[in-house]
Design brief:
The complex is a heterodimer. By secondary structure, chain A is an all-alpha fold. Chain A folds into 2 domains: 160 residues, no CATH class; 172 residues, no CATH class. Chain A has 19 helices and no strands. Chain A is globular. Chain A starts with 21 loop residues before the first helix and ends with a helix. In chain B, the strands form 4 sheets. In chain B, strands 1-15-14-18-16-17 form a 6-stranded mixed beta sheet, sandwiched between helices. Chain B contains 14 helices and 18 strands. Helix content of chain B is 27%, strand content 22%. Chain B has 2 domains: 263 residues, Rossmann fold; 65 residues, no CATH class. Classes of the chains: A mainly alpha, B alpha/beta. The interface between A and B is large, with 53 and 67 residues.
């Protein structure tokens, strides 16, 4: 008689195969960032260098900056482990622990959505907000409620944007010399103008093709829709993200912006296209809205979450001081991840029944109401309001 | 499409391991142990120590729901009432019968001459008298299904066997294809169904080859291929595919009865020769076994003897770093002491060295468990509700619908025992209710 080990069914696991597991998912995620980092390097480094506006060191600066973000995050997390965890006494144990908590990812993502030439101390501040406040204080990897990189970004945007501007932070390395549009992203133009026209919104940056390629002012690595789409295809094929989340999110923004355009005398497809190609929407949709820890886990929840993101992004673009609708709406929706997950899990498993119909109706009403409010709000901003009936216009 | 996408996943079956050697008949073990437990009901013993028993003699009775007799599987003497390890993971009282190797048959075993005259009711009574229960793993008394009030259109033979490693049904069908179809035709008569279907996995071309030429003699019987995915052998899945109807309780609601292929083969003997359920095929497999193979054995045989016949454990197997699994690797149970007996629900014993234990990160929230769940549960939410002992939420999340296929744990990239959480939530619900 031999005594055997205890275990729980199933006794086969997909993780028995080492080509599957969270490690692999995270590795694929990092690989998915490469197109964006390369584009950021091209746009902010190589292109500037070729044009003769930068030294060799400055050419490599975008890459160094992004890597620095990851490094700072790792250092913060390492220090935290040394203080809080008695087991962490050797470098080997600590590296293993850092590897299991994917310490570098928030820093890398944060650096990618900051303007070029952001002072390093601002980056450190952002990394502390991201890694320490948002991730570690909530219990570490897998337990955070908010997207760490976005909290870091919003903390900087709400407090230190002036500092970045003063320190020479620029949204576009190659176009820094052209005074007219330095520092102004297409969306900030949108928030200051009260006329929807191709001439004011798109023409200053060339054409929509530039928006697609990404040679417009914006943060370090978020401007290129093309790079985002390449990453999207890779991440979807590797099943790191669910393909329908970015599609629904971007689709909702596209549809709502189209309506806004139509109501304001711009029936052309350029305005919705402009809306989805600017403001880091593509980047947010592919990398932030799909972030698994802070978004709902069941597929129906993900769909509902993406719909809410879409309507809130449009709404936030037209209310409030900050043109960035993407970051704020994702963080805002992170709060509701848990209830959405709970509700949609019930709806998904029970189907449409007497018990779930109320939840379905509430969710639907919420989405439609927010979308309508965004339409009204946008409508009240632009003078060329011809589409909506007058009594709705009278709300504001 | 996105919300209700999941229809299983391909899992490496590792079936060739136990297919290479032919089925080994081992009909005369020195001792057999008839456990006094079937499903969750204890059995009433009707023999005493010292009694002489013959093959097929009734030794115990199941009472209450699913009442039926249980038979001796060898001839000999009752020598003790002992506790033995049972596939349910517990020690269970069992009747020990010492084999006298004379193969005396009980007088109830005789060739039935008037098979064609048996009425529907006669067949159902025969099922009950033979102690026939599902050999697929659940061990549900077969005759209960045939007493259902709903009209039955189709009897489905489940030969899918989607658990990895298992080949017992496959080997049995290849040995007795004719008996399978006979058993199915009797089942159809017992249910008054016009149609019979044998469902099997697409890669089991052997089953198709051996059954197809025989189909001419059995009108109304069809073959049905299912895709090579897990859990394609799930009763509900097969019924939905074949009848295009859904049901919530028993398959009879959709006009179908599902029986395991081994049950059908036994039923052919029950009808024609009045041999009750006294033997079954069991797969002894896994990386920890020297010569994995299938055994045809009387119920109550010690698995230990079978493992010795299969060459024993591989050299250098460290039992403390290996699993001894009763049942398939996806839904089976780890048995701590290798002193198991073969009972009606035990289709296999797998001995498998544990994979190297790695440190795994926390739940990433990828949602793969929810994606793949065949009944569309969200296991992470059930886990959360379980941890806060929120029975209302567990019920709302339909945890009771879980059929413990184990896919959520299988697919978890962070190696979380998520299926176990759901099972415990289910348990909590049962206790709370």
């Amino acid at each position: 008689m031999a005594r055997f080990a205890n275990g729980k069914a199933p006794f086969l696991r997909k993780t028995d195969d080492l080509t599957y597991g969270t490690q692999v998912i995270m590795r694929d995620f990092l690989i998915g960032l490469i197109p964006l980092i390369l584009f950021a390097w091209y746009k902010n480094g190589i292109k500037v260098y070729v044009e003769g506006n930068a030294t060799l060191l400055e050419m490599f600066y975008p890459i160094i900056f992004i890597m620095l973000g990851g490094l700072i995050s790792m250092v913060i997390e390492g220090l935290f482990f040394i203080i809080t965890d008695k087991e962490v006494r050797t470098l080997k144990v600590m590296m293993k622990k850092l590897q299991l908590s994917y310490a570098m990812i928030p820093g890398i993502l944060l650096a990618m959505i900051l303007p070029l030439y952001t002072p390093i101390w601002v980056l450190i501040f952002g990394c502390i907000m991201a890694t320490f406040v948002t991730k570690l204080l909530f219990g570490g990897f897998g337990y955070n409620i908010f997207n760490p990189a976005l909290i870091g970004y919003v903390a900087i945007a709400f407090t230190l944007m002036g500092v970045i501007n003063k320190a020479g932070g620029v949204l576009n390395g190659s176009e820094v010399l052209i005074d007219a549009i330095a520092g102004a992203t297409p969306l900030s133009t949108l928030s200051t103008t009260n006329l929807l026209s191709y001439q004011t919104l798109v023409a200053p940056y060339g054409s929509l093709w530039n928006f697609f390629i990404g040679t417009i002012p914006g943060a370090l690595a978020e401007t290129s829709a093309l790079a985002c789409i390449i990453s999207f295809v890779w991440l979807s094929a590797r099943k790191v993200i669910k393909w329908f989340v970015p599609v629904i999110y971007i689709g909702t923004v596209f549809g709502l912006s189209w309506l806004i355009g139509i109501f304001n005398g711009q029936a052309g497809i350029w305005f919705p296209t402009f809306s989805i190609l600017s403001g880091g929407l593509m980047f947010g949709a592919v990398f932030m809205a799909t972030e698994p820890v802070t978004t709902p886990k069941n597929p129906l929840g993900k769909i509902v979450f993406a719909l809410f993101l879409g309507v809130f992004t449009v709404l936030f673009r037209f209310i409030g001081q900050y043109p960035e609708g993407v970051a704020t709406s994702i963080i805002f929706m992170n709060i509701f991840t848990m209830p959405i997950d709970k509700w949609t899990s019930v709806i998904r498993t029970q189907g449409v029944t007497k018990k779930t119909i109320i939840k379905i109706i509430i969710l639907a009403i919420l989405i439609i109401a927010i979308a309508t409010y965004a339409l009204i709000k946008a409508n009240s901003i632009y003078s060329a309001s011809i589409g909506l009936p007058l009594y709705i216009g009278g709300w504001n | 499409m996105i919300i209700h996408k999941a229809k299983g996943i391909w899992i490496d079956g590792k079936k060739t391991m136990s297919k290479t050697l032919p089925m080994h008949e081992y009909l005369n073990p020195p001792f057999v142990y008839i456990p006094l437990l079937q499903q969750a009901s204890p059995l009433k013993r009707i023999v005493e120590i010292g009694d002489k028993v013959a093959i097929g003699q009734t030794v115990a009775l199941r009472e209450g729901f699913g009442a039926m007799p249980i038979h001796a599987s060898v001839s000999g003497t009752v020598t003790a009432i002992k506790k033995v390890w049972h596939a349910s993971g517990r020690m269970v009282e069992a009747i020990e019968i010492q084999n006298d190797f004379q193969n005396r048959m009980d007088e109830s075993i005789h060739v039935q001459t008037d098979v064609s005259l048996l009425s529907r009711n006669d067949l159902v009574i025969k099922m009950q008298q033979a102690g026939l229960s599902g050999l697929g793993g659940a061990g549900f008394p077969t005759y209960i299904k045939y007493q259902a009030k709903c009209p039955i259109d189709v009897v489905i033979i489940n030969a899918v066997e989607c658990e990895p490693y298992l080949t017992c049904d496959y080997m049995l069908i290849n040995s007795y294809p004719e008996k399978l179809l006979k058993g199915l035709s009797y089942f159809m008569r017992a249910a008054d169904a016009k149609k019979g279907v044998v469902a099997f996995k697409a890669y089991n071309t052997h089953i198709k080859e051996s059954l197809e030429p025989l189909l001419l003699n059995y009108p109304g019987i069809e073959l049905y291929e299912v895709k090579d995915i897990y859990p394609a052998g799930w009763e509900k899945y097969i019924v939905q595919k074949i009848t295009k109807k859904s049901y919530s309780g028993l398959p009879a609601e959709a006009g179908a009865i599902v029986d395991n292929s081994a049950t059908a083969i036994v039923f052919a003997d029950v009808v024609e020769k009045n041999i009750p359920l006294i033997s079954r095929v069991i797969t002894i497999s896994g990386e920890g076994i020297k010569n994995p193979q299938n055994f045809y054995v009387p119920l109550g045989t010690l698995v230990k003897e079978l493992i010795l016949l299969a060459g024993g454990y591989i050299e250098g197997l460290d039992p403390t770093k290996a699993w001894y699994i009763a049942g398939g690797p996806m839904t089976g149970r780890a048995i701590l002491i290798d002193d198991l007996i073969v009972n009606d629900t035990l289709g296999s014993v797998i001995v498998k060295p544990m994979p190297e234990e790695l440190k795994h990160p926390a739940c990433l929230g990828c949602g793969k468990c929810a994606d793949l769940c065949p009944v569309y549960l969200t296991p992470t939410e059930i886990q959360r509700a379980f941890e806060s002992k929120d029975t209302k939420a567990i019920k709302e999340l339909n945890a009771q619908k879980c059929m413990q296929c184990g896919l959520c744990s299988y697919v978890c990239p962070s190696h979380i025992e998520i299926a176990d959480y759901v099972a415990r939530a289910k348990e909590l619900l049962r206790k709370g209710a």
